[in-house]
Design goal:
- The structure is a single chain.
- By secondary structure, the chain is an alpha/beta fold.
- Helices cover 34% and strands 28% of the residues.
- It is built from 6 helices and 11 strands.
Length: 222
Amino acid sequence: MKTDFELKNNILEELSWLPNIDETQIGVTVNNGIATLTGIVSDLPKKIAIEDAIKSLSGVKAVAEAIKVKYGSSDKQSDIEIAKAAINALEWNASVPSEDIIVKVEDGRIYLTGELEWPHQKSFAKRTTEHLYGVKEVVNNIHLKPKATPHNVEHLIQKAFKRSANIDAKNIKVAVNNQTLTLSGTVHSIKEKDDAEIAAYNAPGINNVINQLQVDYYPMYL
């Protein structure tokens, strides 16, 4: 088990490797495996890159991320400009039925609502808009349409986990109640926890995933 001091050093080293990131502008504290990140970055993609990198580190149980996006005075976009750019980007993305998505922008934050058929469409909608210029944050409140749940969905999910090179299936338990799937057990990193949730959302008939997986670091060779 890594100590908080070791985890903090790992995080600082990882930040120094990220391109276009000034690690001196990011504050890091670690308490019982929970990493808290503070500071300011110049755009949302940098904030996302930092969060994704830290989630991939072994031993980090959770990330409390308080990094703020602050654009320069000459770089600011109005909410109307951001909304127009978001709508245009969604219309150009063939993977997203833009006519079913409502875009609202307040103070540089995009709020997505509506109802879609598949989890990957919801994910693509967020990814399409969060890299737009001037965006501080994307809040994805899109709902998924109810679908019938096959009787063997738990077996299908376990098979999907075993096919994935990024998920260690042996310590993950799956329970299904109607269209809600609950994940419990342990994984090695936050990234693995997130990957398991994505895989679960892609199961046929699943509209909601309760992710109760715990990050429990231990060497893979044990």
